[in-house]
Design a protein that fits this description.
This protein is mainly α. The chain has a single domain, classed as Ammonium transporter AmtB like domains (Ammonium transporter fold, Orthogonal Bundle). It contains 15 helices and 2 strands. A two-stranded antiparallel sheet has the order 1-2. Helix 3 runs parallel beside helix 5, helix 10 packs across helix 11 and helix 10 packs parallel to helix 12. The longest helix is centred in the last third of the chain and has 32 residues. The protein starts with 9 loop residues before the first helix and ends in an 18-residue tail after the last helix.
Amino acid sequence: MPVPSPHFPDISAVLCFVFILLVPFAAAGLALINTGLGRSRSAAHMMMSSLCIFSVAALVYFICGFAWQGFAGGPAHVVTLGGKAWNWIASEPFFLRHVALDGSPASFAMLLGMLSTGIAALIPLGSGADRWKLGAACASTALLAGWTFPLFAHWAWGGGWLAQLGANYGLGRGFVDMGGAGVIQMVGGLTALSIAWILGPRRGKYQHDGMPSAIPGHNAVFVMFGCALALIGWWGLNCAGAILWNQAAMGQTVLVAINTLLSAAGAALTAALITRSRFGKPDASLTANGWIGGLVASSAACAYLIPAESFVIGVVAGALVTFSVEWFELRMSVDDPGGAISAHAMSGLWGLLAVAIFARVPAQGAAPYSVGRVAASLPGQWLAQLIGIGTLIGFILPLTYGLNWLLNRVYPQRVSRDGERQGMDLHELGAGAYPELVTHADEYSQR
């Protein structure tokens, strides 16, 4: 029989559940953004891939993902080093057997984790647009949802060793990431970087001298509408995360929602101003990526900030995304049609750093929302955040790249040259999103 877990107060449980139900809006928003920034002849394929990937992520997380992630205080494998116990992976049963799905914090964490895994899995779709096979994307998602995501989620959210840095070594409150800037966004963004490296650029993206050619997205309306849906989903992510991982009071969610919006607004306006200054006119796709980058950057410390600080974090995120997209494309020759690497990985990294710079993080052992500020310059919280970032870049990136590289050896992930020329819609689905229109571009007819 399932063993009941301690419950939230009734109002907090209802509020947390409502916020979690908003999270799929973020998935819908990312799907529309990835579709709009891709070619028209791959639009139906992108939406189909989004639905399938979200489904695979939920299924695999149900089978084994939550078993590895767990919840703080649950059963886990512990290693003793230096006289201190370090929690490295959960040991919950597979298929959610004996897990009390009864409105307990652990059950809410399971539901939020299932949706969060799907969002993390949608991020690489943006970098693999127009050339990533549907079957390969689903297989890659199974690896992400079954191992990469739950492993890091346990370390940060499930009472793992990153969360224990405060208790074991006095490093602030340990690694802080209440809305998933690292757990969701950086894990997904680093997987997107791996996919872009493995697949290589789209045909016609780079000229013989290495200079990139512009391949604009086909539907800016999809992109902008996706941004609006993403805001609703991020309200759900950040508010539910604040309640689950940081015991936020009901009234605190108002601050979280305001901070999330201000960060996105600051990032979008900054991206629009920078592109207008550099190119003469604001760029819609970069402004949209800036908006997403602001949402991502707000996530880690959304309940520990005052609104003015959130706006500043968004401004920095908007500038970072704008220049990062150009840097990856020009300097690294990484073809990322959806700007996923910059909007999610780079902004997520900045959001984690912003915890140490701006956030009012209570000291270890203090009440989560006690009055008083831990100085931003305290080396303890700085070090905890840097260790988390180092783990993402030094361990999660090689892990996700290695898993996808092995998958590519067994099942090549990139569509054939003829399939890319024909379009993913016709090649993999047999029908286009816009059958009454001619959607082939000219760059192939000139070769």
